[in-house]
Amino acid sequence: MIVAIDGPSGTGKSSTSKAVAAQLGLSYLDTGAQYRAITWWMLSNGVDVSDQEAIAAAADKPSIVSGTDPRQPAISADGLDAAGPIRTQEVTAAVSAVSAVPEVRTRITELQRAIAAEAGGGIVVEGRDIGTTVLPGADLKVFLTASPEARAARRSGELKTTEGKPVTDLAATQQALTARDKADSSRKASPLKKAEDAVEVDTTELTLEQVIECVVTLVEKAAARKAEAEPVEEAAR
Ligand SMILES: Nc1ncnc2c1ncn2[C@@H]1O[C@H](COP(=O)(O)OP(=O)(O)O)[C@@H](O)[C@H]1O
Ligand SMILES: Nc1ccn([C@@H]2O[C@H](COP(=O)(O)OP(=O)(O)O)[C@@H](O)[C@H]2O)c(=O)n1
């Protein structure tokens, strides 16, 4: 069972995906964390993130390792725990530029497909291009949306500066979030986009619990469809 959950920042992808995976006993992959980890590695290793060629040349250098336990998500770059540093404002500000470089996307997409292929019992993969590009054959595709105001309000309490202080400026958070959406949606390589066969869920007026319940129901229905379809496929072979 492969579940793809895409959408812009602050729509609830990570919280929903982790909870759904934990509830249904599936693995979990946060692909945004992988793009953040490679960005953090580049910033830490003197790669000029305003130079596309420099980013492309460094794309296959770091080893990026993701944990797939939804109760203990883990991410490392060259063996260093990246979970904390990837959430800083510095990384958030640079990640769209790094993730737009085709060599970075090819590298990270390969990693994502390998992880999904190895997840025996099924996996929930969240990101921007999972349903359109990474796993177009997913059994269920969900595209989460929410108003920019709701997304900024959700995010403003979480963001941290490089010194670890909270960022509380709501207007600035909304502006940064909108700029990142624009960059992610307009890049040439695998932009943020709803897959044609994805189910769109607007989470603006929903609690996180309601979104989780909705996605669990969608996964259960997709699993039942898959179970019904498989004996037919077997017989046709
Ligand atoms: N439906 C919701 N209502 C209120 N808060 C939410 C909802 N969904 C997520 N959140 C909160 O919003 C923040 C961002 O959610 P997250 O899952 O990280 O979004 P994304 O992965 O899409 O960026 C988190 O603090 C989360 O708890
Ligand atoms: N499948 C993906 C996932 C993330 N990304 C990039 O990684 C960035 C960070 O993703 P994220 O999911 O951690 O972002 P948030 O929604 O958590 O803020 C995005 O803004 C994209 O630039 C991507 O290009 N493709």
From TrEMBL:
Q: Which InterPro entries match?
A: Cytidylate_kin (IPR003136), Cytidylate_kinase_dom (IPR011994), P-loop_NTPase (IPR027417)
Tell me the ranges covered by the Cytidylate kinase domain, including all copies: 3-220
* Keyword terms: ATP-binding, Cytoplasm, Kinase, Nucleotide-binding, Transferase
Catalytic activity as recorded in UniProt: CMP + ATP = CDP + ADP; dCMP + ATP = dCDP + ADP
Q: Name one Pfam family in it.
A: Cytidylate_kin
Any one annotated GO CC term = cytosol
Which residues take part in binding ATP? Answer: G7, P8, S9, G10, T11, G12, K13, S14, S15
Instruction: List the GO molecular function terms.
Output: ATP binding; CMP kinase activity; dCMP kinase activity
Task: Name any Gene Ontology BP term.
Answer: nucleobase-containing small molecule interconversion
- Bias regions of kind Basic and acidic residues — which residues? 151-163, 179-197
Instruction: Give the primary localization class.
Output: cytoplasm
Q: Which family does the record assign?
A: Belongs to the cytidylate kinase family. Type 1 subfamily.
Against NCBIfam families, the record matches this protein to:
cmk
Its protein name is: Cytidylate kinase
> What is the native source organism of this protein?
Streptomyces diacarni
